[in-house]
Amino acid sequence: MKLDSTRREYRYAALTKQSVAASPIDQFKDWLNDAQLANVNDFSAMSMITAEADGFPQSRIVLLKDISTEGFTFFTNYDSRKGKAIEKNNKVGLHFFWSELERQVRIDGIAEKTTRKESEQYFNSRPLESQIAACASAQSATLTSRSKLEEQVRSLQNAFKGEHPECPENWGGYLVCPVRIEFWQGRESRLHDRIVYELVEKEWKIKRLSP
């Protein structure tokens, strides 16, 4: 199936070194807010990329749950494939794409586990059904059938009887501390704007890149 004729021009906005915030975190918050106001579907969804031992990168969609001056937080099962990959190599990538705004953001950073208190606080804020799902799923492990998973969910529902389970020890958050963040704004004729922030001796340096 050829897709070479599928294209569109990008005319939404421009991006300059003079227009961006001094901090990439502040710039990201501005863009994330724009995406939310534009009613972008799943505006907080991001690709989370790990480097695997076999040399192949692995990418999956996760939801951003917090932004702070330290970085970007998401939650997962620590025994999942991504959790095991981070344990061996905590250099990771994050990628956001907001098609409606013709924007994307690429983040390189170091992943660190959040505190147990932070993990428990977020877990306790989740709906009961999501908590039980986290307890029932041995994420990334081979599953013989969906019915087995559903049976495990029913078993836990009966066991907890409407009560909320405790946060599993193998479930929690990661904080991705950025060292490089690139902001991409689509422009006409593929002459896109690319502004990158790089952390150099604890200070953010801003550069423009060729499209």
Automatic annotation (TrEMBL):
Cofactor binding annotation: Binds 1 FMN per subunit.
Any one Pfam family match given in the protein's UniProt record, by short name: PNP_phzG_C
The protein's Enzyme Commission number: 1.4.3.5
Catalytic reaction equation(s): pyridoxine 5'-phosphate + O2 = pyridoxal 5'-phosphate + H2O2; pyridoxamine 5'-phosphate + O2 + H2O = pyridoxal 5'-phosphate + H2O2 + NH4(+)
InterPro entries: Pyridox_Oxase, Pyridox_Oxase_CS, Pyridox_Oxase_N, Pyridoxamine_oxidase_dimer_C, Split_barrel_FMN-bd
Domain Pyridoxine 5'-phosphate oxidase dimerisation C-terminal as annotated: residue spans: 171-211
Entry similarity comment: Belongs to the pyridoxamine 5'-phosphate oxidase family.
Lineage, highest ranks first: Bacteria, Pseudomonadati, Bacteroidota, Bacteroidia, Marinilabiliales
PROSITE patterns the record matches: PYRIDOX_OXIDASE
Keywords, sorted A to Z: Flavoprotein, FMN, Oxidoreductase, Pyridoxine biosynthesis
Top-level taxon in the UniProt lineage: Bacteria
Residues engaged in binding substrate: 7-10, 65, 122, 126, 130, 190-192
Keyword Flavoprotein appears in the UniProt entry: yes
Subunit annotation: Homodimer.
Pathway(s) annotated for this protein in UniProt: Cofactor metabolism; pyridoxal 5'-phosphate salvage; pyridoxal 5'-phosphate from pyridoxine 5'-phosphate: step 1/1; Cofactor metabolism; pyridoxal 5'-phosphate salvage; pyridoxal 5'-phosphate from pyridoxamine 5'-phosphate: step 1/1
Binding positions for FMN per the UniProt entry: 60-65, 75-76, 81-82, 104, 139-140, 184, 194
HAMAP family (alphabetical): PdxH (MF_01629)
Purpose: Catalyzes the oxidation of either pyridoxine 5'-phosphate (PNP) or pyridoxamine 5'-phosphate (PMP) into pyridoxal 5'-phosphate (PLP).
Residue ranges of domain Pyridoxamine 5'-phosphate oxidase N-terminal in the record: 34-150
Protein name: Pyridoxine/pyridoxamine 5'-phosphate oxidase
Biological process (GO), any one: pyridoxine biosynthetic process
Enzyme kind, highest EC tier: oxidoreductase
Cofactor(s) needed by this chain: FMN
SUPFAM superfamilies linked: FMN-binding split barrel (SSF50475)
